[in-house]
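**User:**
Everyone, produce one record:

**Assistant:**
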Amino acid sequence: MGVAALAVSTGGVVTVAHPGMVGAMNEQSVQVVAANALSGVSGTSRNSQLAERREAVSRDSSRDEAAAVAGEEAIEVAEELAVERTAALAKVTEKADEQEKLIEQNKWSLPMTSYRLTAFFGERGLWSRGHTGIDFAAPSGTSIYAVANGVVTSTGYDGSYGNKTVVTLDDGTEIWYCHQSSFNVEAGDFVRSGELIGFVGSTGRVTGPHLHLEVRPGGGDPVDPYAALLANHVRP
């Protein structure tokens, strides 16, 4: 019949190609045209699909990369916060240690190591009104120690109190040490809890040697020294 090749058109009609036209076609072109005609997908459509796939892959890769970057940033932020927390805890611990040392330094203590309690706050006896302190009886010359840190604000003779030392604490509380035989400190001295400040005597209005101890918050009226000592973890 002189037919060199058959071609399938997009409309489904079989046509005969001239031998000269067939010679112009190469084998690859025939295969592509045949494939497209049979599948119903044009070369342009296939290229579009490939482009879409590449775009989708690129989009997914970008998302993965963004997620990775976000994850790294989150880790960096978490590490920075951890460092800040550690530093903050270190400061809190340091302050707590300092406060503990301060408390340790300011602990109250007993005014004598050997004594006998002979009179308590509020009792009546030789006094025209209730007893304003607590009495620690001991031989003359027995050492008297500061019960808390403070500044000596006065030393001297004070009538029925005899030789008296007044130590003022940081909060304004005054501690009175009365009836001493002699002093070991003077006004202006800073004394620490347990430091020697004087000696037991019988000066003033007394019936025997003893230390009369008073506690006066804010330098005002006296309160029960026994209760004040207990409140500061000291039991007479």
